[in-house]
Amino acid sequence: MRLQGKVAVVTGGGNGIGRACCERFAAEGADIVVADLMEGPGNDVVAAVEALGRSAVFVRADAASADDNEATMQAAVDRFGHLDVLVTSAGISGKGYVSDGDVAGTLERMASGDGSALADPATAFLEMPLDEWQTVLDVNLTGTLLAIQSAGRRMGGGGSIITLASIAGKQPEAGTPAYSVSKAAVWMLTKFAAKTLAPSGVRVNAIGPGFIETNMTAVVKAVPQLEERFMAQVPMARFGTPREIADTALFLASDESSYTTGEIFHVDGGFYTE
Ligand SMILES: NC(=O)c1ccc[n+]([C@@H]2O[C@H](COP(=O)([O-])OP(=O)(O)OC[C@H]3O[C@@H](n4cnc5c(N)ncnc54)[C@H](O)[C@@H]3O)[C@@H](O)[C@H]2O)c1
Q1: Which of the chain's termini has less CB crowding within 10 Å, N or C?
Q2: CATH number for the domain including 12?
Q3: pLDDT for 181-221, tens place per residue?
Q4: Is position 91 within any domain?
Q5: pTM (2 decimals)?
Q6: Which residues contact residue 46 at a Cβ distance below 8 angstroms, ignoring those fewer than 6 apart?
Q7: Per the domain annotation, does 191 fall within a domain?
């Protein structure tokens, strides 16, 4: 029970890594606010948390909205009385991304050349539509900033904030132009927040996952040429699981990491071994 008595908000908590964090944290004694755009998956996660004997509430929230972030963090205080842990897992790989595991739809969007991993890299970069860039930055970067601001204002006696960066934040080829830049910026934002909030007892760390098996990477698994290209970069030669990210998040959320702030943890099967 490493999070006994703690309250955690997880943005993007309805699927993938966010969902795994909700369930892992609940199993360790935390009550959870599940924030997501997707109501069905969000409510499923609430039920899963309750089945583990903890309380949870779903808030339908757009990560890119300042008002929605305020409502999400306030829901933690209203329902549970305090807010101790934030995980910012809401994220998109591209403008049209929806976390529904629809591989055919994703491939169709990729073929239409929206700055995707299937296009020739120079073309994907030079022809990237501005709204692709803007939407990805709005959700991945501004969404992370807004969540940190709204949560930080409510973490009176201290707390732990965990952002989701990526290996793509340090290696351009691991993502699209907009995605990689958004994740590099999340890492700098994490360091900035860590330094600024340290005096108030709030720790801020990033997880920079490698290739993790979720809806976001379903298309990679479905296209042999992509899977081969991605796995060639991973010494452990397999995808990671959401649970493996949640285990790291649990360490960062708990008091076991009480002297750790401003760090990035690459949970990546050895991607960064060079
Ligand atoms: N899967 C990977 O290999 C991988 C690798 C590195 C980083 N990440 C990052 O981890 C985070 C979680 O990704 P995942 O793989 O679990 O993806 P996922 O698609 O399984 O889950 C993402 C969740 O975020 C939600 N979401 C998307 N846009 C939102 C918005 N505007 N407002 C609120 N919720 C929104 C989705 O509905 C979904 O529930 C993302 O930030 C992603 O960039 C993933």
Answers
A1: C
A2: 3.40.50.720
A3: 999 999 999 999 999 999 999 999 999 999 999 999 999 99
A4: yes
A5: 0.97
A6: 32, 34, 56, 57, 58
A7: yes
- Condensed to tens digits (0 to 9), the pLDDT of residues 94-148 reads 998 999 999 998 888 777 655 455 667 888 889 999 999 999 999 999 999 999 9
The share of the chain scoring above pLDDT 70, in percent, equals 97
Ligand 1, CB cutoff 6 Å, lining residues: 11-12, 14-18, 36-38, 41, 61-64, 89-92, 99, 139, 164, 166, 209, 211-212, 214-217
In a domain, 229, yes or no: no
Question: Residue 97 Cα, ligand 1 centroid: separation in angstroms?
Answer: 10
Indicate if the pLDDT at residue 70 is higher than 80.
yes
Number of domains in the chain: 1
Residue having the nearest C-alpha atom to atom 40 of ligand 1: 91
Ligand 1 atom index nearest CA of 13: 39
Q: Distances from the Cα of 127 to the Cαs of 122, 124, 132, 180, in angstroms?
A: 8, 6, 10, 16
> What residues does 56 pair with on adjacent strands?
32
Active-site residues, by number, are: 179
